[in-house]
Write a structure and sequence with these properties.
The chain is of the alpha/beta class. Helix content is about 40%, strand content about 15%. The protein is globular, with a radius of gyration of 25 Å. The protein starts with a helix and ends in a 16-residue tail after the last helix.
């Protein structure tokens, strides 16, 4: 199990124990374990028992549970609470913003035991009769439930990639000489993946390969399509084709149906069957190769016909890492550690942006602490030259749209990322007004995670994008593409709307640890999907520019 999976297990345990009104002290200890373990950059599975016990906040009992998870993938204490709780009630805890106390009310007092029953009760106005539920709370919950239903059975791209990579490596080991590749939504780099699909070029039946020990055959549709299930219960579709037609099938299983229909219509009478290489498909159509990320719809076909496809940005084009948190606020590693790590990865510069003073929950920096951090950065810049450390801040956009420091503080910074973190339930008019004022502030450099969304968990607040992007263009403000795979905010479909106005996109990891820097990978995926080039990316330029 990964550290993230182990941490999430303790989070689930804490929620179930709170649901059953267990001891507060134990609940807090498990929540703290969740917060600690998910930030570790060294795999728990590689640690000795003394090393695990040496982690801050991890006592013998929690260490024993960690070892149990590493050994068997299960925790007996968690299984006990799961067995005592109806599965539908456990599922209610997955609804963002609907905590154990409220779940207990609808379960114990209302007798609701499934998410569907809960949604129906909201539509019948039954919740308002109970303590802690008013009309506004009920309506908010109903909207969250509808979002939950739309998001169910989907996974973030980092999870989909990890699981697909496992299957591809496993199949390659079982089938020497076979061609194996992810296809579908994952190969198109969709931020959220509903179906994990793998294509195998192999001249034979695959049924015997799935022996049930690691990957179990769920069902086989003839000998060309298999539904298999991983040990963690993830369902994966495996398509099989002959090796000599792998290129044709790779093309067929990658593009959306809209793209495929338009592609075929653009080359009437041309056969794309039995091609070993995908590049041959485009050669037959008389078109340059269109990157998989751009095969979501037909918009890039016309550009391909005109030989005007964009030269998409690549991960190695990024020169600097902006939006980085340290132990000065809520980061896991010190300022020096983050700078040395980013420099060791070959980047030219780093932009430090700890949280501002309003973010008290994240140990945000009061002015005196921010000035002290600047002094430390000055010292490190002398020591680490020519590597450059930029002085920044992730300033909260306050309710009235103002930034979180006085001008005399802001003017001393190299750059400012302005972000909304609180009071996210806003109308389109309120959200637009609030963000617009921040964009108009002369000290704002980058608009951070513009909608505040959390993929599969929280919808972003609505914005009038024409107004916001016009303002960014007018005031020279870049827009962040937050690379955290749980955000990927700005939405890739808006990237061309921004660059058409001359707005730079900054691909930022929002890293709270050294490991978080690697999320840049997912930001580049989304940027490519949005057609971004090097010239349009802020941190693909040198730091002076």
């Amino acid at each position: 199990m990964t550290n993230k999976q182990i941490a999430n297990t303790f989070d689930e345990l804490a929620n179930l124990m709170e649901l059953h009104e267990e001891d507060d002290f134990r609940i807090r200890s498990y929540r703290n374990a969740y917060l600690t373990l998910r930030k570790l950059d060294r795999p728990l599975a590689d640690m000795t028992d003394p090393e695990i016990k040496g982690i801050k906040g991890v006592g013998p009992a929690i260490a024993g549970k960690i070892r149990e998870l590493i050994g068997s993938g299960k925790m007996s204490t968690l299984e006990k609470y799961r067995n005592e709780t109806p599965p539908g009630v456990v599922e209610m805890l997955e609804v963002n913003g609907f905590g154990p106390k409220k779940v207990r009310v609808v379960w114990k007092e209302m007798g609701l035991e499934t998410v569907g029953e809960l949604w129906y009760a909201c539509n019948e106005n039954r919740l308002i009769e109970y303590k802690g539920f008013g009309l506004k709370t009920q309506e908010d919950l109903r909207q969250k439930l509808e979002y939950f239903f739309r998001s169910r059975d989907k996974v973030h791209i980092d999870v989909a990639e990890e699981e697909a990579d496992f299957v591809c490596v496993w199949l390659t080991g079982k089938l020497p000489g076979a061609y194996v590749s992810p296809v579908g939504e994952l190969r198109r780099r969709c931020p959220v993946v509903e179906h994990i699909e793998i294509l195998v070029g192999y001249n034979g039946d695959l049924s015997a390969v799935f022996d049930g020990s690691t990957i179990t055959l769920e069902k086989a549709e003839s000998t060309v399509r298999y539904e298999v299930r991983l040990q963690n219960n993830t369902l994966v579709t495996v398509h099989r084709c002959m090796t000599e037609e792998f290129g044709s099938k790779l093309f067929q299983h990658t593009g959306s149906q809209v793209f495929l229909d338009a592609f075929v219509a653009a080359a009437p009478g041309v056969s794309f069957k039995n091609l070993r290489s995908e590049y041959e498909v485009f050669e037959r159509a008389g078109l340059p190769f269109i990157a998989p990320e751009l095969r979501e719809d037909a918009r890039y076909l016309d550009l391909a016909k005109q030989q005007k496809l964009p030269q998409l940005i690549e991960e190695q084009d990024i020169k600097g890492v902006l939006h980085v948190h340290t132990t000065w606020s809520d980061g896991l590693h010190s300022l020096r550690e983050m700078c040395e790590y980013v420099r060791s990865m070959g980047y030219d510069y780093i932009g430090i942006t700890d949280h501002s003073q309003a973010a008290f929950y994240a140990n945000g920096l009061k002015p005196d602490r921010l000035l002290a951090q600047m002094a430390e950065i000055d010292q490190l810049n002398v020591e680490m030259a020519p590597f450059r450390i930029l002085k920044g801040i992730e300033s909260d956009i306050l309710n009235d749209g103002s930034l979180d420091y006085e001008p005399e503080i802001l003017q001393q910074l190299d750059f400012v990322i302005a972000s909304v973190h609180t009071n996210l339930k806003m109308s389109k008019e309120k959200a637009t007004e609030r963000v617009l004022r921040a964009v108009e502030n002369p000290y704002t450099t980058i608009l951070g995670h513009p909608t505040g969304r959390l993929l599969l968990s929280r919808e972003g607040y609505p914005l009038d994008w024409d107004v916001i992007l016009d303002a960014c263009a007018k005031h020279g403000v870049a827009v962040e593409l937050n690379a955290n795979p749980y955000r990927l905010d700005i939405e890739w479909t808006l990237i061309q709307e921004a660059v058409r106005r001359g707005i730079a996109i900054s691909i930022n990891p929002d890293a709270h640890s050294k490991d978080g820097v690697h999320d840049l990978r997912y930001g580049v995926f989304a940027a490519r999907k949005g057609g971004l080039t090097v010239a349009q990316c802020l941190n693909a330029q040198d730091w002076k520019k």
